[in-house]
Amino acid sequence: MNQVLERGAALPATPVEPYSCIMRHKHEQPEGEALTEAARSAFERVGEQWTDMRAQLFNVIVGLDRPASAYDIADRFSEQRGRRVAANSVYRILDLFVAANIVTRVEVANRYLPNVHPGCVHDCILLFCEQCGRITHLDDDNIATSIRGAATNAGFRPTKPVIEVCGLCEACSR
Question: Coiled-coil annotation: which residues (predicted)?
Fold first, then answer.
């Protein structure tokens, strides 16, 4: 039986397909060590230090099969380190990661996922399936430009639009 996820709800018990990426523009999508190196480089470019703890936490996030809450990430990180790591420490690092664009926060689900192209600065569109929890990452520069333009025309200076769409993924809508 499928269950609709609400903001802050627990992850589904059954694994879901990892987030996917549909792109309208071209950029590199590193994996494994290349992704970690791209994240380190982007993190240091904004003036932050890439410490062992931060590197380990980033690798925990990359190793997850789906977006996860800060508490889920803290639990996995604690397991890996062999001792409890406070959730507030994880939250502080996650805030730094989000600010540096190496991790994306899915606002509607209160979950985090690695930015699969940390060197690329643009507005992502996240499609959140309310039934299975799957996140689809969609890059569409036309939509992002239109939203930024509409905000600017309304006298608003957008800094980082968060575009999230809730609904049902293709598999759940069948």
Answer: none
129 is in an annotated binding site: yes
In a domain, 59, yes or no: yes
Tell me, yes or no, whether 27 lies in a domain. yes
Q: What distance in Å separates the CA atoms of residue 28 and residue 7, rounded to the nearest whole number?
A: 32
d(CA 73, CA 53): 13
Q: Are 111 and 6 in contact (CB under 8 A)?
A: no
Q: How many CB atoms lie within 10 A of CB 5?
A: 20
21 is in an annotated binding site: no
Question: Cα(92)–Cα(174) distance, rounded to whole angstroms?
Answer: 40
132 marked ligand binding residue: yes
Residue in the block written with tokens 């380990």:
56
Tokens of 110: 């209160």
Domain carrying residue 24: 20-167
Distance between CA atoms of 90 and 121, rounded to whole angstroms?
24
The residue ranges of the chain whose pLDDT is under 70 are 1-31, 119-122
Residue 120 is labelled as binding a ligand: no
Contact 111, 7 (CB under 8 A): no
> Does 169 appear as a known binding residue?
yes
